[in-house]
């Protein structure tokens, strides 16, 4: 019981628990959409979105995000995240074990510009 209280206190202090969390079982965090941009902070969030050329930013771990439609950029900070996107120009990953899969990129070489820092993280065409 003490461990559960300590864990909840830690999550509350990090802003990862509370009244504005995303819908789902076992997930904790926030999801915001504004002007075509999508911002996700938390853990175990599984959601699908329609991209309209904006940006996707994820901070957290073990999130599974699918975006149909184009994005300008995908930024992932954390571990174990998986993103699937139809089209993206730029991808930045910081953290271990995160994957971004894309179908196309509106660039000359057909691949998004990418920066990947973290063991087991990657950007791959699918």
| Broad shape | globular
- The amount of beta strand, in percent, is over 45%
How many domains?
Answer: 1
Main sheet attributes: strand count, strand direction, barrel closure: 9 strands, mixed
* Oligomer type: single chain
Number of strands: 9
Rg over CA atoms: 15 Å
Determine the N-to-C terminus distance: 44 Å
Class by SSE composition: mainly beta
Helicity level: 10-25%
Order of helices and strands: HEEEEEEEEE
Q: Which regions contain 5 or more consecutive residues with pLDDT less than 50?
A: 1-23
Q: What does the average pLDDT come to?
A: 86
Number of discrete helical segments: 1
Organism: Lysobacter enzymogenes
Keywords: Signal
Protein name: Membrane protein
Question: Which features does this protein show?
Answer:
mainly beta, 126 residues, single chain, 9 strands, disordered N terminus, nine-stranded mixed β-sheet, globular, 1 helix, 10% helix
Question: What is the topology?
Answer:
Layout: H1 2-14, E1 28-34, E2 37-43, E3 46-50, E4 55-61, E5 64-77, E6 82-94, E7 99-104, E8 113-117, E9 122-125
Parallel strand pairs: 2-4, 3-5, 4-5, 5-6, 6-7, 6-8, 7-9
Antiparallel strand pairs: 1-2
Overall description:
- The chain is mainly beta and 126 residues long.
- It has one domain (20-125).
- The chain contains one helix and nine strands.
- It has one helix at residues 2-14; strands spanning 28-34, 37-43, 46-50, 55-61, 64-77, 82-94, 99-104, 113-117, 122-125.
- Strands 1, 2, 3, 4, 5, 6, 7, 8 and 9 form a nine-stranded mixed β-sheet that branches.
- Residues 102-126 are annotated as: Disordered.
């Amino acid at each position: 019981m003490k461990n559960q209280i300590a864990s909840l206190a830690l999550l509350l202090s990090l802003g990862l628990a509370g009244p504005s969390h995303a819908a789902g079982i076992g997930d904790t965090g926030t999801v915001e959409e504004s002007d075509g941009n999508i911002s996700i902070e938390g853990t175990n969030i599984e959601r699908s979105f329609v991209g309209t050329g904006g940006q996707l930013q994820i901070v957290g771990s073990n999130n599974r995000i699918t975006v149909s439609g184009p994005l300008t950029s995908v930024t992932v900070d954390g571990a174990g995240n998986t993103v699937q996107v139809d089209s993206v120009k730029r991808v930045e990953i910081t953290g271990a074990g995160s994957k971004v899969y894309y179908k196309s990129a509106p660039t000359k070489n057909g691949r998004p510009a990418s920066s990947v820092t973290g063991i087991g993280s990657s950007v791959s065409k699918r």
